[in-house]
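FYI - complex with adenosine-5'-diphosphate, inputs then prediction.
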Amino acid sequence: AAGLAHEIKNPLAGIQGAMDILLMRCDDNHSAREVLTNVKHEVQRINDTVQMLLARARPRELKFRQVALNDVAQQAVNLARAGLSGDHRHRITIEFAPGDHAPVLTVDAAQLEDAILNLILNAVEAIESEGHIRVAVTPNENGTHTIINVTDTGRGIPPESMARIFSPFYTTSANGTGLGLPAVRRIARAHGGKVEVDSTVGNGATFSIHLPHK
Ligand SMILES: Nc1ncnc2c1ncn2[C@@H]1O[C@H](COP(=O)(O)OP(=O)(O)O)[C@@H](O)[C@H]1O
Ligand SMILES: [Mg+2]
């Protein structure tokens, strides 16, 4: 993400420099002056946006401690429920199924909570009319990992988009940033784990964070 942002910022700096030169050559009462000043402001706006995205994409240092994963997931669910706006509140239900193997892992609880919350918010976004979201904590088959599943009944992901959803800035949402899933993947990997996705168009999606017990 940082590389892409710099690819945008460097040409922008070039444009800003060119605008300054043109403005200097322009008489105070020249008709082009207002246009040039507007372009300069718009370039500054793009620059500010890229700056904001860069700041958000910067990985935080991890602070590991032992926590009950059920509590981390419960907290993310609580935040998501509290954040459902009036419009969503009556048509989206969020179910929480804690794991009865009560896993205690060494994790960065805040970042993991952030990752789960990101997945739930994507699920909310994917539900057009009514729907259901289920957050479940379960052990994998041979007990080496704990899996946090976020399943929704939303629109699903077309096969041709699957390869792109983890790319920085890929978004299909009008006010999205495309930085959610890259962050979720980064957090899972920082814990030695991974994120998997399974989806059928029209039938929703399941995102799974796999965390090793070590
Ligand atoms: N649960 C989901 N159902 C359908 N599409 C999804 C889901 N989660 C993510 N996506 C797709 O992946 C894209 C990228 O997600 P993300 O990185 O979180 O960025 P953003 O939420 O800002 O769009 C979304 O815009 C959407 O197209
Ligand atoms: Mg998102």
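The CA atoms of residues 17 and 74 lie 51 Å apart. The chain has two domains: 2-57, 65-212.
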